[in-house]
Amino acid sequence: MTKTRAMLDRELTDINELILRIGSLVDAAIEHSMQALAQRDVDLARKVSADDAGVNALRFEIEEACLALIARQQPAASDLRAALAAFSIVTDLERMGDHAAGIARTVLHMGDEPLLKPLIDLPRMAEICREMLRLALQAYIQRDVEKAVLIIAMDDSVDALYTQIFREILSFMVEDPRTTSRGLYLMFAAHNLERIGDRVTNIVERILFMTSGELRELNPKVSKAVADLLE
Amino acid sequence: MNSVEGDTPVLQVRGLSLYYGSFRAARDIDLSIPRRRITAIIGSSGCGKSTLLRSFNRMNDFIPGFRVEGQVRFAGQDIYGGSVDPVSLRRRIGMVFQKPNPFPKSIYENVAWGARVHGFQGSLDDLVERSLRQAALWDDVQDGLNHSALSLDGGQQQRLCIARALAVEPEIILMDEPCSALDPIATLKIEDLMRELATDYTIIIVTHNMQQAARASDYTAMMAMDDDRAGTVVEFDVTEKVFTRPKDKRTEDYVTGRFG
Ligand SMILES: Nc1ncnc2c1ncn2[C@@H]1O[C@H](COP(=O)(O)OP(=O)(O)O)[C@@H](O)[C@H]1O
Ligand SMILES: [Mg+2]
Q: How far is A9 from A194, CA to CA, in rounded Å?
């Protein structure tokens, strides 16, 4: 193996480690935003919102690393696809961070209005999203297509839960319009989680591209959850 | 069969094996070279790229012990079939070498030489000007056509060799690492020139510079050596595919610098 090749491998490994780091920051942001919602912990919500700046900064750092690798190493084939996949995955991760921060900001907006209903499906949705994220990060590092493909079905259950939550809250609001604002808070949270699930599916697309070179759209253009509602 | 749909082939290589005495330097090559496109041949040193390239206009005939099996079809016939005259074949399929090799004569004579040999009827002055213009050299040399070709710099000398090849109005131009002795600016000028020429000519270039193959060619043939050191074409495709999603592991290893 040449020294230059070893350097390229090293730079790709460094990028992988940075992706794992931003991934775990996003995972923590989802966990903490949901915890803040469940426990109405305003301080924690503020922290999640503030910590998002760290995710944004790390995202630019990873993009820089990808740019430098492309400019200096002029990678080809699987190396080129890996650099481009990292560039794109980091955008998805950063947006997932924004969605977690969005849930946290909802908690701040709620003030002391009580929750419309006890949280059951929302935490379930969040858990699936986090599991999807962890699987995606593993599949990315291990270049494991089989693992990545498992995630697609998990996103379907996230969408199904979203539809269910949406309907349930809608019925509350129709029955008693005074619940509208409290209902909307929960809908915002559910919406953010649904978007997070879609972003993980984007990451799966990138893993498939990186490993096989195949470009395939996994997310239907209109989210299935929304399509179900419009029926 | 190594071919890509869409472009018509100008040269068809079928079951070609090339020998130096008992040593087989290339084995069972199948390749269709698309007309008026730039095809790059890449692969590690010694895998038979130059041998294959030279077989396209019978340049190897000069090497004692050289032998061919299989066919190279051009203009409806096998160039190794009995009826083909190698001299007129080399007029139709020209060659530019690794090191610029102008004759120690004037710039004008370098370009006019081939045409004279082939009994060109017409205005030599016009032919020289046209060829030098096509080779993007006219502006540099129009005021000194009688100067020695050896007074030109390396990049200019290589473009002069291209002008010399063009003067006999070939259909295909073979280039064996034409930029390996040139600096990056002169290299880019040659690549620009290749792109210009590809509207009228078919260009086949052997290059060890992968970035050059990636940016300058339309198609890429990847060669690799088997255990007995015979070269084979392991992959042939549009260049974009070879450099973004190669099918063959040996191509992948080569273009990512993992060889060896
Ligand atoms: N004139 C020759 N006589 C004998 N063997 C040769 C001759 N030219 C090349 N070879 C051998 O043929 C093989 C392919 O050489 P070549 O076509 O020059 O490879 P490449 O251009 O890919 O570096 C090498 O093993 C080389 O040593
Ligand atoms: Mg060679």
A: 35
